Amino acid sequence: MSLYTEYKKSLKMLEVEEVLDLIIFRPPAFLLVKLIYQTSITPNQITWVSLFFGVFGAFLITFGTATAFTLAAICFIIYNILDCSDGQLARLQNSGTLTGRIVDGFADYIVAVTSYLAIGVGYASNTNDPFFYWTLTALAGFSNALHSFALDYYRNQFLDYALDRKSILGEDLEQFETEYNRLITAKKWSLDRLLIWIYLKYSRIQISLSSKQDQSQTRIYNPKDYYNKNKRMIHLWTYIGPTTELTFMIVCAFINRWDIFLWGMVTIGNIYTLILYIIQKSVIASLKKVEP
Questions:
Q1: Dihedral angle at the C-alpha atoms of 257, 263, 268, 270, nearest 10 degrees?
Q2: pLDDT, tens digit, for every residue of 68-122?
Q3: 249 FRET partner, CA 20 to 30 A, in 35, 175, 189, 224?
Q4: pLDDT tens, 130-168?
Q5: What CATH topology corresponds to 3-285?
Q6: Distance between CA 144 and CA 148 in Å, rounded?
Q7: In sequence order, which residues have a C-beta less than 8 Å from that of residue 151 and are 6 or more positions away?
Q8: Alpha-carbon distance 236 to 240, whole Å?
């Protein structure tokens, strides 16, 4: 297997990959994977190390100095490279686990939440109007969560149709429910049980916000038509993905302009998301439905 073929195998479906991941973060992540492939290092261990760098980067922001912001940006770069490499290693080794997939997503949310709290402490609190900038920081954080939720929803729905997966809205929840019930029956409290419970709650919220037809576990649209009309849309959705917004944060940290980051998230980010949502609704309405 050539190096290029192996690299492609380590990626997600290209249509749902973020551009900045492909051109900036995944290449060095793949090199790291090649270095550790034959070792006993697991994808979950990489995830926990990436979480450390992400949270430590957020902690540095609280110092409120230009030097601390630069060091935080470097930590975020390391975090995102490691965040890419855990999944790439799992795909190449076929060693992914149920909780591993949850931990990977959970780590992203922890880093995001701690980062916005840190911006509030290290930037908003040191402005001439702390209340206003704390409010702006909170709105930016909420916008980040909204963007991630929207991307998760449409990416999972796209993958369900493109890969002919059983469960609309994501990976087969039956596996997670079975494992969760097994842990309950065993009366065993563990981190795995907590993570699976959180994941199931999150997935059910997404399902509750979808249409009744989407909840039916059946294909209501022609898969080929869905893929052809949505492959461009899902690519556009990735531009509000976690890597894109983290890269924006990294750039603003390097130049010490948190105001640009916060205003950009609240204005440009939300306007872009709203426009995409309107277009997406139009695309969905144009799809051919499966004959009953």
A1: 130
A2: 999 999 999 999 999 999 888 988 887 666 667 777 778 888 999 999 999 999 9
A3: 35
A4: 999 999 999 999 999 999 999 988 998 898 888 877 655
A5: Four Helix Bundle (Hemerythrin (Met), subunit A) (1.20.120)
A6: 6
A7: 237, 238, 240, 241
A8: 8
